[in-house]
Each structure stands twice: as C-alpha cells, then as structure tokens.
C-alpha cells in the first residue's frame, strides 16, 4: 500500500522561544529548526510498515517555503521514497490555518490515493492538534488519533489510542488516517550513506496556488505575549521546614 | 447568540471538566445548550440538567455514540450546528479527537485549547509549549473551540434545565470499537485533583512509585509522572503531565526526581504552589518551584510522609 506522511518544519524542541518585544509573534530568526517530533514518529512508523512488507511506497509531504525541503530530505534519509513540497508565498512568520493545510493535503490525497496517511498528533509550535482530524473529515476517512500501536490487517487497520484514563483500540476501514503519539515508536537516526542517497531521491515542488483553494486566513493573530513569570522561590534546608512552609506560609496543606 | 457545549462523560457520570467548559461558554454568551451524546447515559443527562447557566440539555442516547467514535459523533454535532454560533468542548482526548473533525465538516478552522475569552470571537491560547500566549481572533462565522479546563473555574450544579431527547442516529460505518483498557485508580482524577505528586526518571523504577502512595493518601493527591518515567515503563502513559500529556493546575504540585524540561513545565507551571524535591541543585525545576529541597528522594519521601 501507498503511505502518505505529512511533516512540518518547526522550532527545535529544545529551544526556549522568545516573544518579540513588539508582541507581534515569537522570534524565530536564527533559531534552530527541525522536523516536528511527532512527524518524525510518523515517518518512522511508515518506514517500519515498509520493512514489514506492508507499505510499498512512502511519500513525504510538507507545506511551506523552500526551507522545509531540509525536513523533507530528512524524511527521505529516514526511508521515504519521494517527497512533495507545496510552496506557499507566505512569510515565515505567517502560518496557514489548519483547515487550509488540510484542504491542500486533501488535493494530494485525491491525486495519490494513499491507503494510509500518518501524521503527528500535534505540531509543537502551534500546539493545535487539528490537521489529521480535519483531513479525515475532508476525505471521509476514519481516524485513529493519538496512536500508540498500529496494525494493518487485510482491509482494516487496528489502532490503539492513548486516551484520558488509559488505552482504547479501534478497527478502522482502509483508507484511514492515523496520528502518532509519543509511545508509537522510537525514531531512528539517518545514517550518513542514507543522507547522501536522499539527495538523489525525487522532490517535487508544487505551488499552493495551482490547487485552486481559497487560502484566506480564518484567524487573525492579534498579539503574542510572554506567559506570567513565576516569583522566584526558596530552597528549604529540611523536610520540617518544607512542611511548615506549606502549612503556614502557602497554606496549601492543613 | 446560541452556544452548544459538548458534555464530557463516560456514559455514567458527567466529568467536572464540562462544568469548566460551561464557564468559558458563559463568558462568550448566555443561551447555552448542553449536548449529551452516548449510550445508556440517562444518569449523565440528569446531572447535566443540574448544571448552572445552561438553557437546556439535548440527549442523544444510541449505541452508535457509546464509545464517542469521532466519525459518528462529529456527524451528529454537525447536524445540530445550524442553530449555534459557537460549539465548545473540553480539550480532553475526546474533545481533541472529535472537534477538529466537526470544524472541517463545517468548513471552519478550530481554536484549540483556549485559556481565556476576550470577546465572542477573540480568545487567548498557549503556543510553543506554553512559552507564549497568543491572542487569536476567529474570522469564521461559526466558532469551533476546545477549552483548557485549568483555565476556568467550574460552575455550580444546583440548576434545573429541561431535558430534550433527540433520536438522530448518525452512523458513518467507518470505524468499530474493539476494547478499552483503563487504568484503575482509587485516587482523584489527575486533571481535577487539588494536589498532585509526580515522579520522574529519578524514581529509578516503577516499584519506587509506591513511595509516593503514602504521601498521596495523606494529601488526597493524584499521582502523575514525567515523560521520562512513562517512557522508561515505570508507570502508564495516562499519568503523564506535560505538553503532550495532561495539563494540570492544582493548588499544590510536588515534583519528585523531575528535572523540569520545557515539555513537562508546559503541563504544570500554572499550579498555585510548586514543590521540587531533587538531588541536583542545578535542575531547571528549581527555577519554577516555590519551595525546593535539594535532597535524595529516597531519604526525603519517607520523612515527608511521616511528617504530614
């Protein structure tokens, strides 16, 4: 089966972001960027399905300016067969709303007809957790979100989901959409020979405008502020002092 | 301005998170309808009718809604959506699963995980693991919103709204429920507990989490964990506190053997009082802790338990 893996270029998860002084957005200039950690897990799962003889072709896709080709090359180095970049003329500071991302992906799904689409459950920049579910709605496919186990069996995929309170398992008719949670797998590292080979794998650039979708923003970012800072705390010397402070100063225990 | 709030429940009890989502709805407008979709969920409907600040309760009781499958419930909500300008649900795994599907079916985007209401179309929400707060205006005609429950207080439950049964059946026929495997716990729910005590990698193994039991018992606390502790297999994943786990904001949060990575802090830094127990004086957790103690947790925990 053909597997489609949408990925996103985001700030590296170890970097602490700074809000711009004019409160227009966060400052991403000269910041280390990387493939979103959940997308990495999605690529890994697709590659494992190929190694298990279930997936026949893996297509990685990303939407953004030229810089996201770097992350597509990473996906190719990890084992994707080919890549598609949907080029948008947005400034790096702007972003498409999830519904518009999902509509662009829907067009690629119609062209490529993958049996399985694996996305990360959320991007660590916008923290939206929407795109997979929206793409499922637009394509009319079932969805297995927050997946910690994926098993393809005949014309169905069984997905174990991480839900509040424990785990839930579902059987979804194929074609289906899966979004990855952290526990699904441990992504591999790209080896140097594979990084070299990835440079020769096909990467097609498509313009967002050719799909005829109205990409008018649905939201307006009015401002971005830093969260309230916590007051500096104190280091206590003993458990007795800690219990005393909690009882008599903070009054959170009795 | 009519608002539809999707009730969070397990077919037997209404979750307290719903009471917080209703508070958010009240800050948007006044004509609030609560939807209970489930199976054999009449007891939930009765609790829902007591929720203050709502006009009525819609109950859709059918086997297709038993497990809150997104494919089926999203069709039901979409069908009801014509009468409402705002549709709200709790940002739980259920709400996060269903609501973006609803939004796309309605051709709107979603405003996720709001922590504040500025006006009926402008909301605040955390981005970048809570390291920035965005003020976002929705330009869509219909607003589909998920609500972070730690951002709002709960409404009271001494009301008396009317219950209307609806018999719509929307079965997409795309998915089937196989099984649930829920963690059994006598302790308070992590998201709703007034006190949370969490263990991290420093706990070293799953057995050592028992050291937290006695303290949790004495404080009536829920027990949480960092991702490191979950990944190492010490405890199940539904105990994870952080950007991608549960977001908690209790009166007292005790972090034991947790270094304080950005992703963990995203899930607990709105707690009223934070206590850190860690043997590394340079651990980042001390930068957000109100009270810190530099100590070996294997000495500190038994002593703390004995002195509470």
List keywords for this structure.
heterodimer, A: alpha/beta, Rossmann fold, nine-stranded mixed β-sheet, 6 helices, 13 strands, B: 308 residues, alpha/beta, five-stranded parallel β-sheet, globular, ETF_beta_N (chain A), ET-Flavoprotein_bsu_CS (chain A), transport (chain A), electron transport (chain A)
Structural commentary:
The complex is a heterodimer of chains A (254) and B (308). By secondary structure, chain A is an alpha/beta fold. Chain A has one domain: Rossmann fold, CATH 3.40.50. Chain A contains six helices and 13 strands. Chain A has helices at 37-51, 69-78, 98-112, 131-139, 192-198, 239-249, and strands at residues 2-6, 9-11, 33-35, 57-64, 82-87, 116-120, 143-153, 156-163, 166-173, 176-180, 203-207, 219-225, 234-236. Chain A has a nine-stranded mixed sheet with strand order 9-8-7-10-6-1-4-5-11, with helices on both faces. In chain A, helix 2 (69-78) links the parallel strand 4 and strand 5. In chain A, helix 3 (98-112) packs across helix 4 (131-139). The longest helix of chain A has 15 residues, at 37-51. The N and C termini of chain A lie far apart (61 Å). Chain B has 308 residues and is of the alpha/beta class. Chain B folds into two domains: 2-165, Rossmann fold (3-Layer(aba) Sandwich); 195-307, TPP-binding domain (Rossmann fold), CATH 3.40.50.1220. Chain B is 24% helix and 28% strand. Chain B contains eight helices and 16 strands. Chain B has helices spanning 16-28, 42-49, 70-80, 93-105, 210-219, 227-231, 262-265, 297-307, and strands spanning 2-6, 31-38, 56-61, 86-90, 110-114, 116-117, 122-127, 132-138, 143-147, 162-165, 175-182, 195-199, 222-225, 252-256, 273-278, 291-294. A seven-stranded parallel sheet of chain B has the order 5-9-4-1-2-3-10, with helices on both faces. A five-stranded parallel sheet of chain B has the order 13-12-14-15-16. The mean pLDDT of chain B is 96. Chains A and B meet through helix 3, helix 4, strand 7, strand 8 and strand 9 of A and helix 3, helix 4, strand 5, strand 7 and strand 8 of B.
């Amino acid at each position: 089966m053909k597997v489609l893996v949408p990925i996103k270029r985001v700030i590296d998860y170890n970097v602490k972001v700074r809000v711009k002084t004019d409160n227009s957005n966060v400052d991403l200039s000269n910041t280390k960027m990387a493939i979103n950690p959940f997308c990495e897990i999605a690529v890994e799962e697709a590659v494992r399905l190929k190694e298990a003889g279930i997936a026949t072709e893996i297509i990685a896709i990303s939407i953004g300016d030229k810089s996201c080709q770097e992350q597509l090359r990473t996906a190719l180095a990890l084992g994707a067969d080919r890549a598609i970049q949907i080029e948008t003329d947005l400034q790096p500071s702007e972003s498409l709303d999830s519904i518009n991302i999902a509509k662009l992906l829907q067009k690629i799904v119609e062209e490529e007809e993958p049996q399985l689409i694996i996305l990360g459950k959320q991007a660590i920049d916008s923290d939206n957790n929407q795109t997979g579910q929206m793409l499922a709605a637009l394509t009319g496919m079932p969805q297995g979100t927050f997946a910690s186990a994926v098993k393809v069996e005949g014309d169905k995929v069984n997905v174990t989901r991480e839900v509040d309170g424990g785990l839930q398992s579902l059987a979804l008719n194929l074609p289906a959409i899966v979004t990855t949670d952290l526990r699904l797998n441990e992504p591999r590292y790209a080896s140097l020979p594979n990084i070299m080979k990835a440079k020769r794998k096909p990467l097609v650039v498509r313009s967002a405008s050719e799909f005829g979708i109205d990409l008018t923003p649905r939201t307006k970012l009015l401002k971005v502020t830093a969260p309230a800072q916590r007051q500096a705390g104190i280091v206590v010397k003993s458990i007795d002092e800690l219990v005393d402070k909690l009882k008599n100063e903070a009054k959170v225990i009795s | 301005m009519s608002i539809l709030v999707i009730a969070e429940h397990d077919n037997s009890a209404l979750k307290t998170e719903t009471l917080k989502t209703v508070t958010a709805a009240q800050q948007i407008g006044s004509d609030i309808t609560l939807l209970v979709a489930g199976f054999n969920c009449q007891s939930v409907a009765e609790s829902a009718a007591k929720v203050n600040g709502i006009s009525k309760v819609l109950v859709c009781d059918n086997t297709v809604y038993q497990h809150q499958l997104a494919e089926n419930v999203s069709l039901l909500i979409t069908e009801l959506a014509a009468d409402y300008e705002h549709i709200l649900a709790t940002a739980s795994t259920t709400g996060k699963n269903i609501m973006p599907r609803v939004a796309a079916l309605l051709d709107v985007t979603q405003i996720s995980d709001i922590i504040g209401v500025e006006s009926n179309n402008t909301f605040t929400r955390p981005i970048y693991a809570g390291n920035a707060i965005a003020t976002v205006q929705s330009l869509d005609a219909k607003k589909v919103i998920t609500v972070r429950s730690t951002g709002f207080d709960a409404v009271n439950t001494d009301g008396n709204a009317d219950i209307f049964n609806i018999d719509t059946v929307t079965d997409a026929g795309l998915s089937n429920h196989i099984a649930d495997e829920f963690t059994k716990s006598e302790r308070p729910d992590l998201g709703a507990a007034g006190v949370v005590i969490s263990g991290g990698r420093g706990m070293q193994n799953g057995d050592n989490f028992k050291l937290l039991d006695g303290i949790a018992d004495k404080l009536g606390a829920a027990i949480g964990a960092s991702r490191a502790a979950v990944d190492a297999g010490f405890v199940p994943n539904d105990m994870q506190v952080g950007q991608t786990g549960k977001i908690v904001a209790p009166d007292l949060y005790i972090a034991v053997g947790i270094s304080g990575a950005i992703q963990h802090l995203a899930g607990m830094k709105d707690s009223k009082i934070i206590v850190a127990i860690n043997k590394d004086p340079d651990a980042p957790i001390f930068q957000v802790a109100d009270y810190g103690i530099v100590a070996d947790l294997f000495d500190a925990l038994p002593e703390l338990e004995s002195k509470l």
